[in-house]
Design goal:
mainly alpha, Serine Threonine Protein Phosphatase 5, Tetratricopeptide repeat
Length: 211
């Protein structure tokens, strides 16, 4: 995988987030500020525009760092800083290498998760994007350790993220805007976990197409 792979992933993520913008907003309207879909769509659209504005050769890591910086500067609320931090940490983990493999991808996603946990001070079970991202990162590591091909491991990560996303429904939020609702946040799927699964799904599609 190389910089083109990363750019295709981000382009697919942007397309998925745009397609599901209204759904994400609907989820956020129930327990948040009703702006998550709009924010994520705007941010990832800006990422694609920024990446498409240069023809200079860049490393995969630099693509992610640039994307992260773009999200921080264009997205309001919590999602911009969180995903911006995630992508920048992932990019720094990849470094300046022109290509990367399964081990490097796993390390990059580990770094992304660490960044999100550090910035958001959230753990699994608190009804946030961590409930989707953490099990996905674990599943990727476990699948690769068991000898799975990268495409199968990333698919397993996506499926674990989906399971984590669905598991947010019965949880009471203890972080972010949704935490103000107390018990009224129970019974609603977390929008941040949902957009995370869309981004993981885009990664799975992109890696599968690399075959």
């Amino acid at each position: 995988m190389n910089a083109d792979t990363v750019q295709r992933w981000l382009e697919q993520a942007a397309a998925s987030l745009s397609e599901q913008r209204d759904y994400l907003t609907q989820l956020d309207a129930a327990i948040g500020d009703a702006d998550h879909g709009t924010n994520m769509d705007r941010g990832f659209t800006a990422v694609v525009e920024t990446l498409g504005a240069t023809d200079d050769p860049v490393s995969p890591g630099r693509v992610l760092v640039t994307a992260g910086g773009t999200l921080v500067s264009t997205v309001g609320g919590a999602s911009g800083p969180l995903w911006g931090t995630a992508l920048r940490r992932a990019g720094r983990a990849l470094g300046d290498a022109d290509e990367f493999g399964s081990a490097e991808l796993a390390s990059a996603l580990d770094a992304a998760l660490e960044g999100v946990v550090e910035l958001g001070a959230a753990q699994e079970g608190e009804k946030t994007m961590v409930d989707a991202l953490a099990p996905a990162v674990r599943a990727l590591r476990e699948s690769l350790a068991a000898g799975a091909a990268l495409s199968a491991a990333v698919q397993a990560a996506f499926e674990a993220g989906e399971k984590g996303m669905r598991a947010t429904v019965p949880l009471q939020a203890s972080k972010g805007r949704a935490s103000y609702l107390g018990e009224r946040s129970i019974g609603h799927q977390d929008p941040g976990a949902t957009s995370t699964v869309l981004i993981l799904g885009a990664l799975a599609q992109t890696v599968a197409a690399e075959k």
